[in-house]
Design brief:
This protein is mostly beta strands. Among the domains are: 103 residues, Ubiquitin-like (UB roll) (Roll); 82 residues, Ubiquitin-like (UB roll). The chain contains 12 helices and 33 strands. The N terminus is likely disordered.
Amino acid sequence: MRFRFGGVPVQPFVVAALALLSALTALTALPAVAHAQDVACDDGRKEVRVLSFEGNRTFTDDDLSARVLTTPSSFAKRYLRVFGTPRCYPSVGLGPDVRALTQFYRNNGFYNTKVDTLVQAVGPNAVAVTFRIDEGQPIVLDSLTITGLDSVPQRDEVLRNLQLKVGGRFSFLSMFADIDSIVGRLRNFGYAHAAVYPASSVQLQEHRATVTLDVQPGARARINEIAVRSVGVNGGPPEIDSAVVLRLLGFRTGDWYSDRALVEAQRNLYQLGAYRHVGIALDTTWQHGDTLADVALDLREDYMRQIDQEEGWATLDCGRASAQYTDKNFLKNAHHLELTGRASKLGWGNPTNWRFTRQNLCYRRYLDNDSIASSTVNYYVGATLREPSLFGTHWVPSYSLYSERRGEYEAYLRRTDIGGEASATRTIALGMPLRLAYTLELGQTRGQPTTLCLIFSRCTQPQQDEIQRRLRSAIASVALRRTRTDNPVDPTSGTSVAGELRLSEPWLGSDTALKFIKGTFDGSWFYPLPSRAVLATRLRLGAVGGTKLPTPEERLYAGGATSVRGFQQNELGSVVYLLNSDAVAIKAIDDTTFEYTVIDGKRAQRTVPVGGNQLIVANVELRLRDPFFPELLQYALFTDAGEVWTRQPGVKNLGFTRLAVTPGIGVRISSPVGPINVNAGYNPYGSPAAQAYFPEGSAPNAPLICVSPTGSAPILVHKDPSTGALVQENTGCPATFRQPQSSNFFKKLTLTISIGNSF
């Protein structure tokens, strides 16, 4: 018997309340299990307590249980008896299941498989069902002949990685899959009318099979006519002209036909955001012979202009508002224009520092203490123009121009007078976008001396003056991501790999004080295990070059809910401690000399991560689904390891001297806003030894005093008799202060909560 296969392949106390709400929502919305035949226990049938398989060597129990109607009761019903979902012996008996298993094995090359059943009583009205399987000997492929491709230059590519292998197991499923692969690849190389005629011979007694695939590629076809049919939002004429659409397709009349080109064109048009429906297909209503192929487009436009706005209130922002105007057909050329404005500190910062809002709407308890970041209204105004294509290529360019004032509470105020970015993105393979970008900013950073020292590592006056100058920052970057997972939200198999390289140099336009080169890598691997368990692993690497640490946003950090979970956010690696007055003892040596020491047993008021220029993080996580509510709850057993360190120029070492390993457990709760993760990581290391500082006074320019830990040489501070200014005797500060460490096991647990995947 001969078959023809020539079809076209067609290539989403607040945290606790949210978690509780999500749990209740999921519990009330859990779908009932539906089957072709009724297995509900509503007519006195016996409950199925146990379903098992014996003799299956090639396929797992999970593979086989998905093919049968018989289903055991839920975990809760089987073991707790009080609640849960009971499921009973099928009303049609086990005959359909036996036939389904036999056919499944036959489709996979086992023609002599025999399936028997055993039903045993395990309670007054309950049974255990066992399917006993004798797989038999599989059919082995003795020979494979593929003809008709001698005239095809891409023959090796067409035959790459087929499922049928001489000496391997033969099945019709594999043969049909290979036929589909051959036809699809030929169509991508221009053979629009390719077909495959299979012929097979199976000798059941000898358990042998021979297969011949007669490939008829036909003539290689070029694209002839491209017909565009487009309809506006209300059925009227379209706003985007058909000539513009033709420029955006990525192919044109005269190109070799390719199914892949049609799929990419469809994706490109959808990414414009201007269409509700995009249909692109080979037009078979016109016949020009095998060497010409017509393509038909069916388009339904969406609204081309929209305005989005948002208002809100927050503890540290007081009033905030944002608005965005979007034009999806700017200049009638399918250009995407976004005009964005955001503002925060409204009603508190200058010039909106109104008395009424300050006293009644804004949170004075916090904002009164912040004279830098909260003194003025923070804002962002910007425009972004995205073209659908760069000079007719597959690159999608984007251009942004913006100005902003952005503050970090009690830390610093960053003002960008003007900034711009030019970028281009291209999908070089399925799920593999490549992005090139160049960013140029002219701006200034202001901060309290304490902040500039602790966060920016600029502690001397010349260093602080340098970083507060108006500086140019120019960064060129390239980023590549490759995603091959089965689910973007909850992957169970596949890989996800991303890398980025960032460069700031004077020849790019950057100030010499801001030069650096930075590279990062992030790779995740997911492996499915029985009972829907998943083994997830992740590796992160990073390195920053340069003679000194860059500004904080370009440094490398680790620790937190998506990193090493035995540490709080960014607190793995070097830190600096900030003490309050209750933790510092001041001893007067004479009228103008003082000694500052830490009081034994006192803890720091604030831990400030310093970051580093080298990073390594590795995660291993076993994800288990809850037996009662598998779609709602997951549990994680994890071990995280990592280190962040600063590599000094000329020193040859790879770090790893303080590699931290923190095991732990976690719970994941599905919710409408994404998975909520609650993790407890065990940290046996305690706080690292580091420098400790005390700000003498509350004024913005209060001096920063190094505090001597107990047992270290005292740090002496002198008061200038004429000005009253405090001056430290030497500029060094010993990195020997440690937080008090408890021996209690629970005190060594670090709790982290996040929304989204761990990695």
